[in-house]
Amino acid sequence: MFKGQKTLAALAVSLLFTAPVYAADEGSGEIHFKGEVIEAPCEIHQDDIDKEVELGQVTTSHINQSHHSDAVAVDLRLVNCDLENSSNGSGGKISKVAVTFDSSAKTTGADPILNNTSTGEATGVGVRLMNKDQSNIVLGTATPDIDLAPDLQRTNAEFLCLDGTN
């Protein structure tokens, strides 16, 4: 027993003189998780939730002559649609969807457009959203119904963006 006590004492003394060793911090970062559970017959594809639409460059002479740029198609993909088990509230199955676009950065008036809020950029221009048939989308108001394909797991709702004030 005496030998074991000497070994234990030697171990304790050696631990007193041991410098702490830590792994070097090789960088750090954060991971944020965001999501929600919704009661809806379809989901919006995750790449379409926060979407950036590139309108390109438009010359002032083109805007002054045509009052708008060329239209840019915008697809909104609906995925994982469960139309078979859906209900429209009246006992029927959901077969159509309407979409509402809105923004705090819209112009006022009967036909609002998305206002350009960039500092130091062009003034007197904005972005107008249009349905596939090129009828104006009134911000804050639901679009006309878009048919959902019951046999597909994905539906594209197509919209157009124009920049200009008319």
TrEMBL record:
Residues 1-23 form the signal peptide. One of its GO terms (cellular component) is pilus. One of its GO terms (biological process) is cell adhesion involved in single-species biofilm formation. The keyword S-adenosyl-L-methionine does not apply. SUPFAM superfamilies: Bacterial adhesins. Residues 31-151 form the Fimbrial-type adhesion domain. It holds the Pfam family Fimbrial. Keywords: Signal. This is Putative fimbrial-like adhesin protein.
